[in-house]
Write a structure and sequence with these properties.
Pfam families: DUF433. By secondary structure, this protein is of the alpha+beta class. Helices cover about 45% and strands about 10% of the residues. The mean pLDDT is about 95.
Length: about 70
Protein backbone atom coordinates (compact mmCIF):
# COMPACT_ATOMS: atom_id res chain seq x y z
CA UNK A 1 0.00 0.00 0.00
CA UNK A 2 1.30 3.44 -0.92
CA UNK A 3 -0.04 6.76 0.31
CA UNK A 4 -0.19 9.06 -2.73
CA UNK A 5 -1.82 11.98 -0.92
CA UNK A 6 -2.95 12.59 2.65
CA UNK A 7 -5.63 9.93 3.44
CA UNK A 8 -5.51 8.57 -0.16
CA UNK A 9 -3.76 5.27 -0.92
CA UNK A 10 -3.26 2.84 -3.75
CA UNK A 11 -2.71 -0.90 -3.49
CA UNK A 12 -2.66 -3.23 -6.48
CA UNK A 13 -4.72 -5.71 -4.44
CA UNK A 14 -7.44 -3.20 -3.54
CA UNK A 15 -9.85 -2.02 -6.22
CA UNK A 16 -7.32 -2.86 -8.96
CA UNK A 17 -4.92 -0.17 -7.75
CA UNK A 18 -7.39 2.70 -7.95
CA UNK A 19 -7.01 5.51 -5.38
CA UNK A 20 -9.12 4.82 -2.28
CA UNK A 21 -9.71 6.42 1.09
CA UNK A 22 -7.08 5.06 3.50
CA UNK A 23 -8.41 2.21 5.64
CA UNK A 24 -11.37 1.57 3.32
CA UNK A 25 -12.18 0.17 -0.10
CA UNK A 26 -14.03 3.38 -1.05
CA UNK A 27 -12.62 4.78 -4.33
CA UNK A 28 -12.03 8.50 -4.67
CA UNK A 29 -14.08 8.57 -7.89
CA UNK A 30 -17.09 7.14 -6.04
CA UNK A 31 -16.93 9.97 -3.51
CA UNK A 32 -16.68 12.54 -6.31
CA UNK A 33 -19.50 10.95 -8.28
CA UNK A 34 -21.82 10.87 -5.29
CA UNK A 35 -21.09 14.51 -4.46
CA UNK A 36 -21.66 15.59 -8.06
CA UNK A 37 -24.93 13.66 -8.03
CA UNK A 38 -26.17 15.74 -5.11
CA UNK A 39 -25.34 13.55 -2.12
CA UNK A 40 -24.44 15.62 0.95
CA UNK A 41 -21.34 15.15 3.10
CA UNK A 42 -23.58 13.86 5.87
CA UNK A 43 -25.22 11.30 3.57
CA UNK A 44 -21.82 10.12 2.33
CA UNK A 45 -20.51 9.84 5.87
CA UNK A 46 -23.48 7.73 6.94
CA UNK A 47 -23.74 5.57 3.81
CA UNK A 48 -20.03 4.81 3.34
CA UNK A 49 -18.68 5.28 6.88
CA UNK A 50 -16.13 7.91 5.87
CA UNK A 51 -15.28 11.10 7.73
CA UNK A 52 -15.60 14.69 6.60
CA UNK A 53 -11.79 14.76 6.45
CA UNK A 54 -11.84 11.74 4.11
CA UNK A 55 -14.26 13.51 1.76
CA UNK A 56 -12.17 16.68 1.78
CA UNK A 57 -9.04 14.61 1.10
CA UNK A 58 -10.76 13.07 -1.95
CA UNK A 59 -11.64 16.55 -3.22
CA UNK A 60 -8.09 17.82 -2.63
CA UNK A 61 -6.64 14.80 -4.44
CA UNK A 62 -8.96 15.32 -7.42
CA UNK A 63 -8.08 19.02 -7.58
CA UNK A 64 -4.37 18.14 -7.49
CA UNK A 65 -4.72 15.60 -10.31
CA UNK A 66 -6.73 17.97 -12.49
CA UNK A 67 -4.27 20.82 -11.89
CA UNK A 68 -1.57 18.72 -13.59
CA UNK A 69 -3.77 17.62 -16.47
CA UNK A 70 -2.66 18.80 -19.90
CA UNK A 71 -5.32 19.34 -22.54
CA UNK A 72 -4.34 19.74 -26.17
CA UNK A 73 -6.75 21.57 -28.46
CA UNK A 74 -6.77 20.19 -31.97
Amino acid sequence: MKEIAPRIVIDKNTRFGRPVIKGTRIPVDLILGKLSGGMSFEELMEEYEVSREDILAALRYAAQVISHEEIKVM
